[in-house]
Design brief:
Blueprint lengths: L2 E4 L3 H13 L4 E4 L11 E4 L12 E3 L5 H9 L8 E6 L5 E6 L2 E7 L7 H9 L4 E4 L4 H14 L1
Parallel strand pairs: 1-2, 1-3, 3-4, 5-8
Antiparallel strand pairs: 5-6, 6-7
Length: about 150
């Protein structure tokens, strides 16, 4: 086991363990007073408890997006090498963040002009490249115009 969830915050514990189970990552469940086992590489905790834990590699769990940083740390990388924001145009466009051939985030937009989430993802992943599908040409053009007007 290479991950330990060290928190007394029930919300953070639930969120962290739910995501770890989805990704089939084994983990230890520890209290703040427990000794961290030798085989742990990353500790997940809450923002409030972050400074109370004496461990070199810690990640504060705020929402489900901690998983991309966790996977990068477990694979020995600080950041992903290739990140793409993939967009499936249509009446309700789909957006996925793909990092090193692994889907790490998925969103559905309300309409093609709703590009706020894409802009947030570009801020979060500044080196990401955008890939847009060729289907639904009218919606694709609306989305491209909306993006051009906001950038």
């Amino acid at each position: 086991m290479r991950v330990a969830v060290v928190t007394e915050n029930a919300r953070v514990y639930y969120l962290a363990t739910k995501v770890l189970r989805e990704y089939k990552i084994p983990f230890y469940s520890l209290k703040l007073t427990d000794r961290i086992p030798f085989d742990v590489e990353v500790v997940l905790t809450s923002l409030e408890e972050y400074d109370k834990i004496n461990f070199p590699v810690k990640i504060a769990v705020v929402n489900e997006n901690f998983i991309d940083e966790l996977l990068a740390r477990l694979e020995g990388r600080k950041r992903f090498k290739n990140i793409y924001i993939a967009i499936d145009p249509g009446e309700r466009p789909g957006v996925a963040v793909v990092a090193d051939n692994r889907v790490i985030e998925v969103y559905h937009l309300k309409n093609p002009k709703d590009v706020g989430m894409i802009l947030e993802l570009l801020e979060k992943y500044p080196k990401a490249k955008i890939k847009i599908g060729h289907g639904a040409k009218r919606h694709r053009i609306l989305m491209l115009k909306s993006l051009a007007g906001r950038v």
